[in-house]
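Incident review: delayed structure delivery

Summary: a single-chain prediction request sat in the queue longer than the usual turnaround. Root cause was a stuck worker, restarted by the on-call engineer. No data loss occurred. The affected request and its eventual output are reproduced below so the record is complete for anyone auditing the incident later.

Affected input:
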Amino acid sequence: MLQAGIIPVTPFQQNCTILFDMETKHGVVVDPGGDVEVILQTVQENGITLEAIWLTHGHIDHAGGAEELKEALGIKIIGPHKDDLPLLSRLEDQAKMFNVPMAVRNVTPDRWLDDGDTVSFGDHSFEVFHCPGHAPGHVIFFNREQNFAHLGDVLFSGSIGRTDLPGGNHQQLLDSIRDKVLPLGDDVGFICGHGPGGRIGDERRTNPFLKGI
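Output delivered after worker restart:
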């Protein structure tokens, strides 16, 4: 059984997510934006073995702790799409821009992801969709077997990702939601980068940012 646990990290209260198998206790961490010592303590206390780091995109609150966590555990960083290389190579500059009081290191992924790729751990396979708009290289992860998606900062409960940061594009984000997220299906439950998750169908019906798309 696929399980998900959320660890709010950094001053941005980003949803660092641990996806793991309930039986084997092996899994991955999605978007370790910072507070790496808290992430390490949490997985240790719960007996979880992390196999990889998955990144949805290259903003500091999602990727700022990835290199430190990789070094601590000896695991690979997978994703996002290569279009986020400019963001990942300037994470330290992002920290200065946002005046973030935490240790941040630039990130070089071990594997870039493309639309149509798959990533997995154990028996759990996730389809990868490139969803630019919030960030040029943003990707989402979809587990078809359990109708579950990790949407990063593409779609929130009642909102959508901001597009006023470098590389953001509002129309591109709406196109990504229309063409990639909504077709996953109304019954799909999701975790997002900030705040509570939800179901895609509820967002289709009630999210004011999706009217008319």
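Verification: Helices lie at 36-45, 60-63, 66-73, 85-88, 91-97, 170-181, 200-206.
Action items: add queue-age alerting; document worker restart procedure.
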